Amino acid sequence: MKIVDLRSDTVTKPTEAMRKAMASAEVGDDVFGEDPTVNRLQERMAEILGKEKALFVASGTMGNLVSILTHTRPGDEVILEANAHPFHYESAGAAAYGGVQFFPIVGNHGILDAEDIALAIRPDDAHYPPTRLICLENTHNRGGGKIYPIEKIEQIRHLADQHHLAMHLDGARLFNASVATGISLETFCKPFESVSVCLSKGLGCPVGSVIAGSAPWIREAHRIRKRLGGGMRQAGILAAAGLYALDHHIDRLQEDHYHARQLANAISQIPLFEFTPSTVETNIIVLPIHDSVITPLEVVTRLQDEGVLTVPFGPREIRLVTHLGIDDGDVTYAIEIFKKLFGN
Ligand SMILES: Cc1ncc(COP(=O)(O)O)c(C=O)c1O
């Protein structure tokens, strides 16, 4: 049976060419700082993100955790959106390892306005935890791949400056935001003290994320990565995939966005899933289910029986994600199956 795997952009497998680049990577002991490929990836990422230094980490979760721990002390508070990845999907790492409290605020498709955040900043009073950090997510996963408007980020930066707060960007899919808008990675990253980007999502690498910030900030983050057991040895094998992806897998993200729009245009015409397709801005589609009887799991199971893999994504939603393993034929097939199962 044909399988079209739309569960996540993390399901991609390295291409032959990427595997070749990994196999022939020059390596060394990165805990000694001696892996030339890791060093090259870090230097290159620092440059394209417009930061002084960068650090290779095992995952997006580790990137966010190391970043939050680097910015905070136990008892501090971090403001983020109520659907943010570190709040939902990172096993409360910041609370468990850093004694950090989150202040989640409900946004619009994951996007917050400066005014929403202003209300959450604590007064300087012994009753309250000190607000230390604002975390934003671009693109926003649970927000349906929504791109953070740059003007909103700049307004939030202005607010953060007034209150001497740091800002961290969870840019797991920042490359998608940049390709979709034409806004450079550097421009998107400038308002933030720290940034985390994933290599193992749209860029198609098997493993890895990179965090970036000032030289002293990365020096401290490096210590925290070590403390968490994240010092890897001949990690150049993994970093080589990242370097390969920077050369070959950025521009092609447009294809993923095109495929997501095709899926959105077709599926949104099925009354069960009706929504405004123009809300799909990148490679993620969160489909609403307009029926109180059929559950997301039932929808997912029926699709799965026909080879179309998706995930339940909330009480009345499922999620579809396009990626480099999805081609035109896969999109056509998935649309056919949606119409066959749920069209009238
Ligand atoms: C927005 C966002 N941040 C962070 C992560 C965590 O990445 P990882 O799965 O590499 O830990 C994800 C993973 O899906 C994500 O969507």
In short:
The chain has 344 residues and is α/β, with parallel strands linked by helices.
Describe the structure in your own words.
The chain has helices spanning 16-23, 36-49, 60-71, 85-88, 93-98, 114-120, 150-162, 174-181, 185-189, 215-227, 236-248, 253-267, 296-305, 328-342, and strands at residues 4-5, 53-57, 77-81, 101-105, 131-137, 166-171, 194-198, 209-213, 284-288, 308-309, 311-312, 317-321. 42% of the residues lie in helices and 16% in strands. The model has no long low-confidence stretch (mean pLDDT 98). It folds into two domains: 16-248, 3-Layer(aba) Sandwich (Aspartate Aminotransferase, domain 2), CATH 3.40.640; 252-342, Aspartate Aminotransferase, domain 1 (Alpha-Beta Complex). The longest helix has 15 residues, at 253-267. The protein has a seven-stranded mixed sheet, sandwiched between helices. A three-stranded antiparallel sheet has the order 9-12-11, covered by helices on one side. A two-stranded parallel ribbon has the order 1-10. The chain has 14 helices and twelve strands. Helix 7 (150-162) links the parallel strand 5 (131-137) and strand 6 (166-171). The protein binds pyridoxal-5'-phosphate.
Q: Show unreliable segments.
A: none
Structural Rg: 20 Å
The arrangement of helices and strands along the chain is: EHHEHEHHEHEHEHHEEHHHEHEEEH
Distance between the termini: 25 Å
The chain-level structural class is alpha/beta
Number of domains: 2
CATH topology of the largest domain: Aspartate Aminotransferase, domain 2
Biggest sheet strand order reads 2-8-7-6-5-3-4
Mean pLDDT rating: 98
- Helical content stands at 40-55%
In what range is the share of β-strand residues? 15-25%
- Give the helix tally: 14
